[in-house]
Structure to design on (221 residues):
């Protein structure tokens, strides 16, 4: 039986990949893999268990055993050990921990099979950092979204303020650049476009424009 088709959407935080991936998946009736959420849950779990992140085997073994459930209490909701962690994983600490555990090769290996399991008919839209390069190298369409760091920090700022969470724009920009550096410079599965990926700069584009562009590219793929 041939494998279900995959659209891989990679890019840095704030490039819009989460929103775009979710809209494209909904339009096509495909499943969605938010791979960043897996790294975020692992980061939060490590933090709760006060794991030493230099103990890579302990982090990997926790990654293998994680009890994660998506969508139990609505779209975008995530549970760890049956407890809602949707807000915790999106906090600054959750972002920082995700980027740190994402740099651990053994943790990435432990999460690999879990990600493959999302590939089910009629198809999958997978968003992350290495969907097109490592996890689904045979994806039908590979998109790499970018946007300037300033624009990405502004988007994050608006998102936080919209949720009633205090935020300081220069601090957000500094943290974002730090995470970008860690994600792009790590040895294993660094953030970079696959050779056959189509790069879209979303700085001056609306969500609708990017979604339509991706759908059009998929029709022609
Ligand atoms: O996509 P996101 O912002 O939710 O991802 C949070 C962090 O998780 C990101 O800084 C790096 C890590 N990550 C990763 O290493 N590989 C992925 N496929 C997805 C996320």
């Amino acid at each position: 039986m041939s494998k279900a088709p995959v659209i891989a959407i990679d890019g840095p935080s704030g490039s819009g990949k989460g929103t775009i991936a979710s809209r494209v998946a909904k339009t096509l009736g495909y499943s969605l893999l938010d791979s960043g959420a897996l790294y975020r849950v692992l980061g939060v779990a490590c933090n709760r268990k006060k794991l030493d992140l230099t103990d890579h085997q302990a982090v990997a073994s926790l990654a293998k055993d994680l009890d994660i459930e998506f969508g139990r209490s609505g779209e975008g909701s995530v549970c760890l050990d049956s407890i809602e962690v949707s807000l915790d994983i999106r906090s600054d600490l959750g972002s920082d921990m995700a980027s740190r555990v994402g740099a651990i090769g053994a943790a990435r290996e432990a999460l690999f099979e879990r990600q493959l399991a999302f590939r089910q008919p009629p198809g999958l839209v997978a968003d992350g950092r290495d969907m097109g390069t490592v996890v689904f190298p045979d994806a039908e369409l590979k998109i790499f979204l970018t946007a300037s760091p300033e624009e990405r920090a502004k988007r994050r700022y608006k998102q936080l303020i919209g949720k009633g969470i205090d935020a300081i724009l220069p601090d957000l920009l500094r943290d974002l650049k730090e995470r970008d550096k860690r994600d792009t410079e790590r040895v294993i599965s660094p953030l970079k476009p696959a050779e056959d990926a189509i790069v879209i700069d979303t700085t001056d584009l609306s969500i609708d424009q990017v979604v339509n562009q991706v759908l059009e590219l998929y029709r022609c793929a």
